[in-house]
Amino acid sequence: MQHRNRNHPSQLHHDHQKQLAAARDQHGGHDKHAGHSPEIFKRRFFICLALTLPVLYFAPSLQNWFGYQAVQFPGAAWVSPILSIIIYFYGGWVFLKGAWHELRSKIGMMTLIALAITVAFVYSLAVSLGLEGEPFYWELVTLVDIMLLGHWIEMTSVQGASRALEHLANLVPDLAHRLVAGRIEDVSVGELQEGDSILIRPGEQIPIDGEVEEGASSVNEAFLTGESRPVTKQVGDEVVAGAVNAEGALTVRVTRTGEQTTLSQIMRLVEEAQSSRSRFQALADQIAYWLTLIAIGVGSLTFVIWLGVGSGLVFAVERAVTVLVIACPHALGLAIPLVIVNATALSAKHGILVRRREAFERARKIKAIAFDKTGTLTEGQFGVQRIYTEGIDELEALSIAAALESLSEHPLAQAVVQEADARQVSLPQGKEFQAIAGKGVEGSVNGKRYRVGRPEWAQELNLAFSSHLQASLERIESRGESAIALLDDERMLVLFGLADRVREQARIAVQRFQEMQVQVVMITGDAEAVAKTVANELGIDRYYARVLPQDKATLVRKLKATQPTAFVGDGINDAPALFESDLGLAIGAGTNVAIESADLVLIKSNPLDAAYALKLSKATYDKMLQNLFWATGYNVIGIPLAAGIAYPVGILLPPALAAVFMSVSTVVVSINAMLLRRLKLD
User: How far apart are CA 615 and CA 364, in angstroms?
Assistant: First the structure.
């Protein structure tokens, strides 16, 4: 029998849930729906609804309104009380239990619901047992029904928004094909250890993080990057759990297991973000607390006033119950959490992992964003920027240089080879290859001797160096680029200007920030010439060059002293600056998503995602404000109406209708939060 290891992602999801629940209890909080599920409320709603129909049928008020006479039989008078007792305890038990927990910590919506149905129940039952008055069983049972329906809708909404975690947990298969002494054995993913070799067949999901040892294929990593286009994987490339292998078989060496896998870390970050306390949630809880106190106070005052003016006990109790019902801060309890889970799911879908909820909410205030250059605005790899020739065709020069450089392992040499590949230039065969230390390489191509290396090599060999190429060299150096020269036995033929490639998305990102009135700042340790070239190419007006890693944090501190500042870096060397900024965004993280110093992790290494993060933050903030306004604003009109202020002009709000209005506010808040999913970040 195979056992699932506790570190398997689906098991980790369960473990994280228990840890987070324990953390909430430790801080004195209580989840009003702890141990509940949508199915519980659904089942209780339909059972109570079935039991409600006879109560409605026998209700004297409804008989008068609709002009019918209920069937009479011995004991008919006890149908409504008995069914109401069942509905009160069966349907209302979740609210009574929730109120009990709230009374031990901090009163809230469950207290109001429990108080409303209990007052209605006790008074009605007392009337049935001999107290003078008129019971309102039908109001009681419909109130319980509507409350159950509202909570069913709420839990279904929250669960739907949180499905991202369940989807992630289901991405990893239970079994893996481990290679042992040339044999294939199927084992539980939890049994895999670092260093094991596994086989991944075409069409299978990758069960664990690892490095390709043998084979080549394309892999769909859409769950991680949001990019549906398959990524080519060859020997030495990294693959992550949850990705889908396409056409080729891969042999992979396991590099990370359990909680260290990319998928497990993503799940942890998403779950922590969804369950973390929001500043707005704290505000909503505080408003709910005071609204509860106000409702109890107004309800009590309403009861006393109507009883005092001689309106009768039934009317006074009904008004008090109506106040308690309509003031129930049910929508407040849902207003912020549902926005949070939707925002977190949306950000994760776009490759933005939220680590600190409070910092994410502050992102809307950002007025300046500082980027580390290398690996953030640029790719961190050299590329050919310009080619200057003298008496030779550019493509021919590129083919000759690449033929020799393909035999070298130097990073600049590889840049020339990659440029030839990008232009689909066919390479002739290089012969008699020789590396000259500190100078370059030389060899024969098409029967002629060539050298590729430092421009100074031409002077050392007393080769001809035209004024055109001399001017080109000066331009290359003025931009801070590196120069490589192609020489024959007589003269310098070509100059290649090489520099760190600027990310195409970086240009778009800078434009987006400028449109958002956010100042873009570039920080780099490179020379002034390099920094100026990249800044000009990207349209960045403000930059700082020759900044040492330890000085980045100091610079960020100065920037944020004048305006709220975000910093985007690689999350490793830039950790102090990320921590110092008002909003730290780790980019270039790849599969290493456990960046403890950042507030957000941009796992696609795309600087444009930083603009998406700010846009999503502002949209999230707007939704929270809208929900808070709607969840509290309707009480300004609702509570006075429930208290009977408009009774002299013939307007009276019954408890059941008050429950409908309260539930409508909850539905509106839910729909408004769900509309966040329609936000187009790109």
Answer: 7
* CA Rg value for the chain: 35
| Distance (Å, whole) CA 257 – CA 328 | 47
CATH topology of domain 350-377+502-614: Rossmann fold (3.40.50)
Whether 186 is catalytic is: no
pLDDT of residue 21: 41
From CA 216, how far away is CA 233, in angstroms rounded?
6
Q: Which CATH number fits domain 173-258: 2.60.300.12, 1.20.272.10, 2.70.150.10, 3.10.20.310?
A: 2.70.150.10
Question: Residue 139: is its pLDDT beyond 80?
Answer: no
Asked whether the predicted pLDDT for residue 438 surpasses 80, the reply is no
Q: How many Cβ atoms are within 10 Å of 447's Cβ, its own excluded? A: 7
pTM of the model: 0.63
Which string of DSSP letters, residue by residue, matches 98-119? HHHHHHHS---HHHHHHHHHHH
Residues 532-566: tens digit of each pLDDT: 888 988 999 999 988 876 788 889 999 999 999 99
Architecture of domain 380-501: 3-Layer(aba) Sandwich (3.40)
Query: Catalytic one among 196, 372, 500, 582?
Result: 372
- For 606-625, the pLDDT digits (tens) are 888 899 989 998 998 899 88
Q: Residue 416 is encoded by which pair of tokens? A: 């020339």
* Residue indicated by tokens 């109890």: 296
